[in-house]
Specification:
By secondary structure, the chain is mainly β. The protein has one domain (16-88): Immunoglobulins (Immunoglobulin-like, Sandwich), CATH 2.60.40.10. 0% of the residues lie in helices and 35% in strands. The protein is built from no helices and 5 strands. A 3-stranded antiparallel sheet has the order 2-4-5, with no helix packed on it. β4 (63-73) and β5 form a beta hairpin. The termini are far apart.
Length: 99
């Protein structure tokens, strides 16, 4: 599965959202498992996190993250994980006040 529909509106943020298209499978898709961490090769557990085509995280600290996603088909077979790295830079200091 390929995460091909995502947008980084700003690297200066504390949240991240993801949206993906359902893969084609003869038995249909039962749901998805996802995880967010800093490792490049995490495989989400074989437990459905949800059936929607979106995931969102809030209150993230600045740093490097990797979003991991895999699908489970209608027959209970889990597909391989896909991984999407990204970096949140955190809030930049504003200009000094005029005084």
């Amino acid at each position: 599965m390929l995460i091909d529909d995502y947008a980084m509106h700003s690297a200066v943020a504390s949240e991240a959202g993801f949206r993906w298209a359902a893969p084609v499978d003869a038995s249909g898709i039962a749901g998805y498992s996802w995880a967010l961490d800093a490792a490049d090769d995490t495989v989400p557990p074989e437990e459905i996190s949800g059936a929607d085509l979106t995931a969102a995280y809030t209150d993230l600290a600045p740093g490097r993250y990797v979003f991991h996603l895999r699908a489970c088909d209608g027959a209970g077979n889990w597909g391989p994980a896909t991984h999407l790295p990204f970096t949140l830079e955190g809030q930049q200091p504003g200009p000094p006040p005029n005084g």
